[in-house]
Each structure stands twice: as structure tokens, then as C-alpha cells.
Amino acid sequence: MRGDHNGTFSRPIKAVLDRLRILYSDPEAVDRMLGEPENRRMLASFRLLVHRRDSLAWATLFLLVLGIGETFCSHIYDRARASHTQFGEALFAALDANFPGAPRSSARVAGLMRVVTAWLDSHPLPDVTPEDGWGNWMIAAAGGDIVPAPSADCAALLHALDDLIEENQGFGRFLSQITPLGKDLALAESQGVRIMTMGGAKGLTVRATIIVGLEEGIVPRPDQDLGEERRLLYVAMTRAKEFLYCTWARRRTGPTARAGAPRVQDRRNYTSFLRGGPVSSQDGQAYLR
Predict the structure, then answer these.
(1) Other CB atoms closer than 10 Å to residue 1's CB: what's the count?
(2) What does the pLDDT look like over 49-85, one tens digit per residue?
(3) Which of 84, 97, 134, 278 is the right S-S partner for 174, CB 3.0 to 4.6 Å?
(4) Which residues, listed in sequence order, are joined to residue 246 by a DSSP beta bridge?
């Protein structure tokens, strides 16, 4: 897939594979799972246990809390640039000065920072790795309105990482390994069909590759560099050692109908990258028959 925002393409594919009892793996499900708002809030809060002024963690919390958002973050970024400091340092300097010139959301920001700081104070970081592992410790510490409990999938990943991570690793190191080790775990357990994006497939070779959604507006994306889009398609096509299938839809229904086209009901055309090539497009049902 060129992309899979919110599982737009992978979800219906998985549903059919489940119905047919075909095994599959999805390494990039780790990114989507960790990108869920509640999981992002949880991880950002735990990063603040490592560094109270973590710029990315605070910016993440502000963007996820209703009523704060990008306007306030832009204000702090402007202050950081003017003072040649990082976002986190500029944020606390503005807090100490009672947020001069800040948007009206600053009152909500101050309240959020108060309750998050109180949670951090009440959950001191252990000096050594807990006996059951950092993942289990996080699951036990999370929960509630301030730091949400992880989703079931995220909790399962944290449990699994406790068995993978090297002993005596600090908490900051554990947090940094959640995404890469989670993907490695998914690939190690992969059976049957691997579902991934074009970028994620780089470096892999398989017997057969099926590329989905090769339609104008999806490949190439209209807001991206054409050379880079062509390179990504080349990467995807050259994964196959024996069989390569490139698929597209003349019309789409369901969630994928909103992918790559401003008007859902529009008739679609396959990507211009493949037009005029040595292989012509043919009807899928006729080909299968």
C-alpha cells in the first residue's frame, strides 16, 4: 500500500483474510496502535518521568487535549525561537511568567500542567528495573483521566517487550525501544501474508507481491515529489522474485472510497506511472476466471 491511514486499506483486507483463514502479519500496525490518542497520551506522560521538560512529550499532550491544540504550541515555538531555547524550556519560562501574550487556552494549559506534574510527583521512577519489567510497571501505573491505560494491543506489546529487552536497561531506553522492537516482533512472528506500506517493504524480497490502490491521487500522491513517488513504486514492484500483481479500482465503496479522491463517486483511473508500459490493465474478475 502507498499508505494506510487508520487502516483504510488493511482493515478490509484483514477481514477477508480472516474469513478465509489465511494467516497474515502487519508490522506497521505497531505505528498505528501507538498513534492512537490514548496510547500517545500515555507514552508522552511516561516520557516526562524521564525528563520533566521533554519538548515532544508536552507538545503531544497539548495537541491531544481538546481546547489547546496548535495555536498555543505555535506561540511557544515562537518564544523558543526568539530565546534560542527548546520548546520545553520556553514552555516553563512562559508558565513562570504567567503566559504573557499567550492564547486564551493558556489557562487550560496551566491546569493540565498542574495535574500532570502532580501525577509525575506521585509516580516516582524506580531506581532499578522492576522485577516484572518496565512494561508491567507502566501498565500498573497507568489508568485514569490523567494518564490513560494502554489499549489491549498496546498492553500486550508492553508485556512482550519485557521478555525481549535486555536486563538492567533504564526506563528511557525501554521507551525508545517500544516501536523498533515491536516491529521486529511482528516480523519475527510473520506467517502467510505480510501487510505493509511501500516504504516499509524496502529491503525485503518475497515470492509474490500484490500492490493495492494504484490509482491517480493515491500513486502518485498529488502533494508529493513525483520522483520520490516513482521511486517508492519501483521499490514496491521490485520486492517480488516471481509474481507481481498491481491492482486498482474503477470505483470504490466504503472507507477506501475517500482515499486519493476529493469526490467519492468519481470514476477512477490507474496511475499514470504504468500507462504506456509493456503490460496493459485487464479486468480482475476476468483474469481470476
Answers:
(1) 24
(2) 999 999 999 999 999 988 898 899 999 999 999 999 9
(3) 134
(4) 211
Which residue has 492512537 as its cell numbers?
36
Beta-bridge partner residues of 270: 215
d(CA 4, CA 259): 9
Alpha-carbon span 21 to 191, nearest angstrom: 12
Taking residue 191's Cβ as centre, other Cβ atoms within 10 Å add up to: 9
Phi-psi sector, 147: left (phi>0), alpha (psi -120 to 50), beta: beta
Q: How many CA atoms lie within 13 A of 165 on its CB side?
A: 28
Asked if 90 contacts 72 with a C-beta cutoff of 8 angstroms, the reply is no
Q: Which three cell numbers stand for residue 99?
A: 503566559
Instruction: List per-block mean pLDDT (blocks of 10 residues) for the chain, which spans 289 residues.
Output: 86 92 84 91 96 96 89 95 96 95 93 96 93 94 94 92 82 91 75 84 87 93 91 94 94 82 74 89 92
Q: Say if residues 27 and 197 touch (Cβ distance below 8 Å).
A: no
pTM higher than 0.70: no
Distance CA 284, CA 175 (A): 45
Query: For residues 144 and 122, is the Cβ–Cβ distance under 8 A?
Result: no
